[in-house]
Amino acid sequence: MKKYIIAAAILITTLALDIITKYMVVENIFLHERINIIGTFIQLTLTYNRGGLFGILQGYQNLFLIFSVIVLLFLMAFFILEKNKSLLFCNSIALIISGAIGNILDRILGKEGVVDFIYIGSDKYFRWPAFNVADSVIVAGAFLLFIVFYKDEKKRRTAG
Predict the structure, then answer these.
(1) In 3-state terms, what secondary structure has residue 8?
(2) Which residues, including other chains, have CB under 8 Å from residue 105's CB and lie 6 or more apart?
(3) Label partner for 34 (CA 20 to 30 A): which of 15, 79, 82, 159?
(4) In the prediction, which pLDDT does 160 show?
């Protein structure tokens, strides 16, 4: 039971952090304005992603909304049906679901697109596409889920 409470707390906290940071950025930063955080390497900016991951397929927001909802439903079903729910598994799914909900909310609440605002890199060499808290927790959750699968596979190979 404790692992479910921890996972729920992670989901609620990261979703709230995503919603609050997006709200603060929209209210306080002009579109495409850049605010230096650590020199010009880490900046805050306001952009709207009307496409998918890394801004691909701009303008297909409804397609990505449908895809995101399907993935969210799949993850929820996967969580419910999974028999071996370790703490790491629960937390990784909580992170991914939190991020998915955060980005879905942007798409269904009539915003111009998903609010992205974290801008990392160098204009001279390489700048990563802008992202948000939801994107970050999705990546962290996916990485942790990879570790869960790796550990499960390793355990299966040594047992059999």
Answers:
(1) helix
(2) 19
(3) 15
(4) 66
Q: Cα–Cα distance between 140 and 137 in angstroms, integer?
A: 5
Q: Which of 18, 106, 116, 123 is labelled catalytic?
A: 116
**Helical ranges in 29-132 per DSSP H:** 61-81, 87-108
Marked catalytic residue, from 18, 123, 135, 152: 135
Name, in order, each residue with C-beta under 8 angstroms of 80's C-beta and a sequence gap of 6 or more. Answer: none
Inter-residue contact 106 to 113 (CB < 8 Å)? yes
The domain tally of the chain equals 1
Whether this prediction's pTM lies above 0.85 is answered by yes
CB-CB neighbours of 149 under 10 Å = 12
Q: Cα–Cα distance between 76 and 11 in angstroms, integer? A: 13
How far does CA 130 lie from the centroid of its chain?
Answer: 13
Residue 123 appears among annotated catalytic residues:
no
| Domain housing 123 | 2-159
Q: How far is CA 65 from the centre of its chain?
A: 14
Distance of CA 108 to the CA centre of its chain: 16
Has 116 been annotated as catalytic? Answer: yes
Q: Name which of 20, 37, 9 is nearest 94 in CA terms.
A: 9
Q: Which residues, including other chains, have CB under 8 Å from residue 25's CB and lie 6 or more apart?
A: 44, 46, 115, 117
